[in-house]
Each structure stands twice: as C-alpha cells, then as structure tokens.
Amino acid sequence: MRAAVQAGPGQMQIREVARPVPGPGQVRLRLEGCGVCASNLTPWAGPDWMQFPGDPGALGHEGWGVIDAVGEGVSGLAPGQRVAALSFRSYAEYDLAEARNVLPLPDALAGQPFLGEPLGCAMNIFRRADIRAGQTVAIIGIGFLGSILTRLATEVGARVIAISRRPYSLELARRMGAAETIPMEDHGAIIERVKDLTGGRFCERVVEAVGKQWPLDLAGELTAERGRLIVAGYHQDGPRQVNMWLWNWRGIDVINAHERDTEIYMSGMRDALEAVMSGRLDPVPLYTHHFPLERLGEALDATRDRPEGFLKAVVTMP
C-alpha cells in the first residue's frame, strides 16, 4: 500500500509499504480519507523529541472507510461495511483498528466523509461543558471545533458570544447561530464588550478552543462567578500560567475536556452520528480544503497557516 512517512521537519514522502494484517479482534480499513488535526502541527514542525523517519501513516487519526478484512474473533462487522474508526496510522491507504473502536455508518451517509474522532471529541466537550438553555456562552476560537460547539450550544437555547481573530471565522460563527461576534484583537476591549453584553455578569460558560496562553487568560476573565471554564484547546507547546487569584475569587469550575478513554471517545462518536442523522449538525460544509494523500504536506501547511476561507483539511484516498 501507499503510506505517508514523515522524513524530517516539514518533509513528507509517500512510500510503498506492506499492507497491515489484522490480528485477533481487529479489522482492516480501506481508507476513503482522513481529517487533518491541529495536534499534528507540533510533530510536523520536527521537535527534538521526534525520530525520523516516522511510522507509515502516523499522525492520521481521523479516518473513515470500508472494512477490507477482519481478524479472528470479530463478530458484528464484515468486509464491505462502511465505518469510521479510532485508529492511528490513517495517512495511508489502509489502517488497522480494534473492532470495539469501529462505528458502522448508515447507508444514508454513503459518499459523505465522516470524521468520527473530531466529531466525537466535539460532542464529548459539549457534554462536559453542561451548556443549558438561557446561559450565555463565550467560545474563544472559531475553528472546526468552535464552530460545532457554537451550533450545539445555540441549538439547546444558549446565547453564544463567538470570539475569533479571522473575519471568516466570525462570519461562520454567525451562520452557526452565534448571537454576538467579537474580533480577538484587544484583550481589554474584549473583556469590556463581554461585560457590556452580559450586564456585568460575564458568562456562565466559557470554552477556550485555541490552545494558547492568551486565549486561556482571556477565558478566565470572561467566566462569571461560579461559572465553568472549559479547556478544549490542545495546549502542546509548553507549560501554562493561570491567574489563580481570579479563579479563586470567582469560584469557577475548570474542566479539562480532553478524553483518553476509548470507550468515551466511541460514545462521543455515536452521539455525533445521531446528531448528523437527526439533522442537528451538518459538518460537511466545514471541510473546506481537500487534498490527495500525495499532498499531505500541503494539507498540514494549510492547517498551520490557515489561508482565507480555511477551516478543516481532509486528505482523500483514490
């Protein structure tokens, strides 16, 4: 099979490698595509801890496709089924997944991409946030995740204030239901604007979906007394400092909404599938940039540089 192999910092090659063989309890997927995650960007830059060349297909974890073969002891799944899966070498034509980490897709989604892992992640964050009707919710960072959370929060009756640096993202937030949008430019001006919009109370829920120090600082400032700050951004570039005096004084709850339990991931993926099938969520328009496997490096660069109109890159297989 063909698989992408990272050969060095910012260097991706396509190599011919052996097709994996499913072991007991595993299935093999013939991949249709794989989403590109912002968590790929630190490895893509080639930090000191990376070893090159990387494993074939490594970093790809948002894949979907068709079951191609099943291992011993697998029941309820068969070749020909279209599925999304939790797997971890999906920048390739084939990948393996544990059968328990596979989500069958209905025929109604035939021909449509279904990025199970990031959609499931969004649903799990939304669950942990406990957003309710009548609350004011600030969402800092309107990328793929922030836009989905905007839609979900609006749908349950919350008032969303979307904060992001790109005009495109703010316009997208409005389309997803945000009541107010604020450019992420001046720290103090944002705080004053949210204070005005909330009558001085600030927000019962604040979701930080950027993964940088300044948005995390801002999130604390925008959280109301006894409110909840949800850390959804992936902070992968070093330690963070927090204003613990402010967090103490306001008595806020702080939730790290990242999951590592695969059963919880799968629960989120099932919730995402239900949301799509019921019409509550349509993620397809959010997949703004499509690349063949041979151009994975360009897809990663676009995820880093975020050109005009960019939200989410998807790599497709022939």
TrEMBL record:
GO terms for molecular function: oxidoreductase activity, acting on the CH-OH group of donors, NAD or NADP as acceptor; zinc ion binding. Residues 8-315 form the Enoyl reductase (ER) domain. Its cofactor is Zn(2+). The keyword Cytoplasm does not apply. The keyword Oxidoreductase applies. Keywords: Metal-binding, Oxidoreductase, Zinc. It comes from the Bacteria. PROSITE patterns: ADH_ZINC. Belongs to the zinc-containing alcohol dehydrogenase family. This is Zinc-binding dehydrogenase. It comes from Teichococcus oryzae.
